[in-house]
Specification:
Protein name: Aspartokinase
CATH architecture of the largest domain: 3-Layer(aba) Sandwich
GO cellular component, one term: cytosol
Strand content: 25-35%
Catalytic activity: L-aspartate + ATP = 4-phospho-L-aspartate + ADP
GO molecular function: aspartate kinase activity; ATP binding
Shape: globular
Strand order of the largest sheet: 3-6-2-1-9-11-12-10
Bound molecules: aspartic acid, magnesium ion
Number of domains: 2
Order of helices and strands: EHEHHHEEEHEEEHEEHHEEEHEEHEHEEH
Number of strands: 18
Structural class: alpha/beta
Helix content: 25-40%
CATH topology of the largest domain: Carbamate kinase
CATH superfamily of the largest domain: Acetylglutamate kinase-like
Largest sheet: 8 strands, mixed
Distance between the termini: 37 Å
InterPro entries: AceGlu_kinase-like_sf, ACT-like_dom_sf, ACT_Aspartokinase, ACT_dom, AKii-LysC-BS, Asp/Glu/Uridylate_kinase, Asp_kin_monofn, Asp_kinase
Length: about 400
C-alpha cells in the first residue's frame, strides 16, 4: 500500500481533544488506503518547559541528559496518539526514536540523522497495522544514547521518514494554513501561496518565516520529498495548504514570491583592521569557533592599508562575538581600533526564483525603501534573494511597502 507521512506540530496535539481531531484526519487517509506514518511533536509549550527545567537544574549541563529530558515530550504524545487511534479501531502502535531505530550521529541537541531502517515498521504494516506513530525530534547515537535533532526537529523527522519509506507525500499539519507571502501579522494583504519551490522555502525558512525547520526543507529538496504545509484546525481537501516542491512543478513566474524578515539582528563593525591576505580568515575563524551565525559580510574599500569589516549576526550572539574578537586581538591575531555593535537593526529580504530571469528587482526594492525614507545599512544578494539591513523601527513599514511594490497580494 502507498505510504503517507503526516506530521502534527505542538499546537495540533496540545490537548486530548486536539489529538482526537488529528487522529480523525489520520483515519480519513487510512480509509483512502494509505499506510500512514504519523510523526508527533510534544504538546505545545512542553519542550520549552523541559528545556527550562534542565537550565534550572544545571548551568553547564551534560548534553546527553538534556536530550534525555527534552525528548520526553514526544514520547507522551506518541503513546496518546496511538491509543486514540486504537479507540477508533485503527490498528496503530507507537515507536520512540530508538525503537525504530532512527540512527543519528553523536552531536547531542543538534544531532544529524544517519539512517532509518524500514524493516521494523514495514513488518508491522505487513501484519495489518495501518498507522505507525513515531515520536519526532529524537533518535539514538552510535553510543546508544538518546539524541535530539535541534528545535523544530520533528519536521526533519517527518521528511526523513518520507524519504526512507518513499512516501507519496509528507503532510505537515500546523497552526497556519500554509506558507504566506509574508507574515499576516505584519500586513493583512499577505496571501497564502499554493506552491513554493524548495529553494524559496529554504530562504524563507532560514530568514525567519518559522513554518518549517530549515533542515527539513534541505532534506526534502535533496530527496525530492513533496512537502505539504496545512492547518490541522480546518477541514481539508487534497488541494489545501501550500505544496513545497521542485521548481519545475511551478508554473507562475513572478520575480518575488515572498518577503521575509528577521527582527533580532545586530550589525558589528571592526574599525580599521589591516588589509592583508588572511585577515578575513583571522576574523571569521574565531567567530565560527565561537558558534556565531554570521550572515552578511561587507569589507569596505581600504585606505592606506587599513579597512573596515562589517558583519551581521543574531542580536543574542553579540556578547559572544565581542568576546571572541577581543580574545583574538589580545592574542595578536587581529588588530582593530574599535569594535562597534549596532543592536537595533532588522533584516528584510525579497525572495523569488523568478529573480534569476528578471532584472531590475534590486533597483525596484531600493527605490521602494528610498520612497519610504528608509536608510539601507547593509545589502547582500544571492541568485534568488536580496537582503537589506535597516533600523529595526522601520521593519514593518519596509515589509508592507515591499509587499505592495511586488504586488504579492495578487494571485
Ligand atoms: N518539540 C520540539 C520543539 O519544540 C520539536 C518539534 O516540535 O519539532 O522544538
Ligand atoms: Mg515547528
Amino acid at each position: 500500500m502507498p505510504v503517507l507521512v503526516m506530521k502534527f506540530g505542538g499546537t495540533s496535539v496540545a490537548t486530548l481533544d486536539r489529538i482526537r481531531r488529528a487522529a480523525k484526519r489520520v483515519g480519513v487517509e487510512v480509509a483512502k488506503g494509505y499506510d500512514v506514518i504519523v510523526i508527533v511533536s510534544a504538546m505545545s509549550g512542553k519542550t520549552n518547559e523541559l528545556v527550562g527545567w534542565v537550565g534550572e537544574t544545571s548551568k553547564f549541563y551534560d548534553a546527553r541528559e538534556y536530550d534525555a529530558v527534552v525528548s520526553s515530550g514526544e514520547n507522551v504524545t506518541a503513546g496518546l496518539m496511538a491509543l486514540t487511534l486504537q479507540e477508533m479501531d485503527v490498528p496503530a502502535r507507537s515507536w520512540q526514536g530508538w525503537q525504530v531505530p532512527l540512527k543519528t550521529n553523536s552531536a547531542h541537541s543538534q544531532a544529524r540523522i544517519e539512517e532509518i531502517p524500514t524493516d521494523n515498521i514495514n513488518a508491522k504494516f505487513a501484519e495489518g497495522m495501518r498507522v505507525a506513530v513515531v515520536a519526532g525530534f529524537q533518535g539514538i547515537s552510535p553510543e546508544g544514547r538518546i539524541t535530539t535533532l535541534g528545535r523544530g526537529g520533528s519536521d526533519t523527522t517527518a521528511v526523513a521518514f518520507a524519504a526512507a519509506f518513499d512516501a507519496e507525500r509528507c503532510d505537515i499539519y500546523t497552526d497556519v494554513d500554509g506558507v504566506y507571502t509574508t507574515d499576516p501579522r505584519i500586513t493583512d494583504k499577505a496571501r497564502k501561496l499554493d506552491k513554493i519551490a524548495f529553494e524559496e522555502m529554504l530562504e524563507l525558512a532560514s530568514l525567519g518565516a518559522k513554518v518549517l525547520q530549515t533542515r527539513s526543507v534541505e532534506l526534502a529538496m535533496r530527496f525530492g520529498v513533496r512537502l505539504r504545509v496545512l492547518s490541522s484546525f480546518e477541514e481539508q481537501s487534497d488541494e489545501a495548504g501550500t505544496l513545497v516542491c521542485a521548481e519545475e512543478d511551478i508554473m507562475e513566474n513572478r520575480p518575488v514570491s515572498g518577503i521575509a524578515f528577521s527582527r533580532d539582528e545586530a550589525k558589528m563593525t571592526l574599525i580599521s583592521i589591516a588589509d592583508r591576505p588572511g585577515i578575513a580568515a583571522a576574523i571569521f575563524g574565531p567567530l565560527a569557533e565561537a558558534g556565531i551565525n554570521v550572515d552578511m559580510i561587507v569589507q569596505n574599500i581600504s585606505e592606506e592599508g587599513r579597512t573596515d569589516m562589517t558583519f551581521s549576526c543574531p542580536v543574542d550572539q553579540v556578547a559572544r562575538a565581542e568576546k571572541a574578537l577581543n580574545t583574538a586581538k589580545e592574542a595578536g591575531d587581529i588588530n582593530f581600533h574599535a569594535l562597534v555593535a549596532d543592536t537595533n537593526v532588522a533584516k528584510v529580504s525579497a525572495v523569488g526564483i523568478g529573480m534569476r530571469s528578471q532584472s531590475g528587482v534590486a533597483a525596484q526594492m531600493f527605490k521602494t525603501l528610498s520612497d519610504e525614507g528608509i536608510n539601507i545599512r547593509v545589502i547582500a544578494t544571492s541568485e534568488i534573494k536580496i537582503s537589506v539591513l535597516i533600523d529595526r523601527k522601520y521593519m514593518e513599514l519596509a515589509v508592507q511597502a515591499l509587499h505592495d511594490t511586488f504586488e504579492l497580494e495578487k494571485a
